[in-house]
Amino acid sequence: MAEPKRITTTLSSMPPFEEYVDEIRPLWESHWLSNWGSIEKRFIAQLNDYLHCPEISLYDHGHSAIEAVIESLELTGEVITTPFTFASTTHAIVRRGLTPVFADVKADDFTIDPASVERCITPRTSAILAVHVYGNLCDDDSLREIADRHGIKLLYDAAHAFGVEKDGVPAACLGDASMFSFHATKAFHTIEGGAACIHVKGWTPEQNHDFRVMLDQKMNFGTTGKQVYGYVGPNNKMNEFEAAMGICNLRHLDEYIDRRRAAAERYWERLGDVAGINLCRPKANTKHNFVYMPAIFDQDVFGASRDQVQAALLEDNISCAKYFYPLTNDLDCYRGKPGFDPADTPVAMRAAAGALSLPLSSYLTTEDVDRVCDIVLSCAGR
Ligand SMILES: *Cc1c(COP(=O)(O)O)cnc(C)c1O
């Protein structure tokens, strides 16, 4: 018997090939392949508009953007963050020489719990680094209030939230800065890439502008002028080919998201009422991007474990991912270090034990979703 059609957790969105070729064709004339060429400049202008943010730095990766913002805001001591995220968020704090302090998450949408953040505040806290998990926006009002009251910065790892809006306001506008990942597997991508959106509360537009210029200089070896190196900086620049992919994908983003929504709605239809599965559906007043199809299994109620469901899918040539397991306060590289203990964040620990991201992409058909759902349902009560 032939192998059943392979279904992957994600599948990168591809713009029409000819469109991409048209975008990159001028590069053969200009020979200008990186360092803020005309394509990158055009891409930034489009992002300024799309994200409602005048100060945006483009990076080679989302992770570079997070590290750069942490470093350049000159944060010190402790940063309160969530363990229910990709390793990148926590690594960025640690690699900048700071101490992550882990707050727990909310049981409904798995974003950081403001009440838990409040309990983590100490005189050494300099910032909160929260994550819009699965594209679900954090409780920004409560986090902002806490940050203001304690005079600390509020940063967002918005890697999952490109295209997400609440009451017409893009996720990029939240916090003192928001960082995006444009990695190939995200809802919007530039192959590899990322961005920092700067809008520090209390700063003038000029101060935000100057800070953004500094980020651009620092990511280019710290060059502040011809033969002048004002900073000790790395090389984290995006290139023209990536920016061209961004321009093409931005043009088609609405279609990609519509197709993802159609697949997500089919999942909700098939699995939404099943006891023991939390599909973590987006809130009513948000425009969502359907970046992932999270399903959190409660083994006691559903009757099968997350791992059993994953194994059953794999048997039928369907892959899915344990986003987010293990928690970042349980990663091998941190094991035994003070402050890294998943038991401190019980809600996140429970979520991590049951979390499975089912396949979702802009290419998934209704038949594909039904095949996944049939297998998931067959696991119930096993
Ligand atoms: C993908 C991701 C990142 C890292 O982005 P890169 O562009 O791959 O560096 C950071 N945080 C979260 C939550 C992510 O999902």
Describe the protein's architecture and organization.
By secondary structure, the chain is of the alpha/beta class. 38% of the residues lie in helices and 15% in strands. The chain is built from 13 helices and 15 strands. The strands form four sheets. Strands 1-9-8-5-4-2-3 form a seven-stranded mixed sheet, with helices on both faces. Helix 9 packs across helix 13. The protein is globular. The mean pLDDT is 97. Bound molecules: pyridoxal-5'-phosphate (PLP).
What are the SSEs and their pairings?
Elements: H1 17-24, H2 27-30, H3 38-50, E1 56-59, H4 62-72, E2 78-81, H5 87-95, E3 99-102, H6 114-120, E4 125-131, H7 140-150, E5 153-157, E6 165-166, E7 169-170, E8 177-181, E9 194-198, H8 205-218, E10 223-225, E11 228-229, H9 240-271, E12 277-278, E13 286-287, E14 293-297, H10 299-302, H11 306-315, H12 346-354, E15 355-358, H13 366-379
Parallel strand pairs: 2-3, 2-4, 4-5, 5-8
Antiparallel strand pairs: 1-9, 6-7, 6-13, 8-9, 10-11, 12-14, 14-15
The structure holds pyridoxal-5'-phosphate (PLP).
Residues 61-63, 85-86, 88-89, 131, 157, 159-160, 181, 183, 194 line the site of pyridoxal-5'-phosphate (PLP).
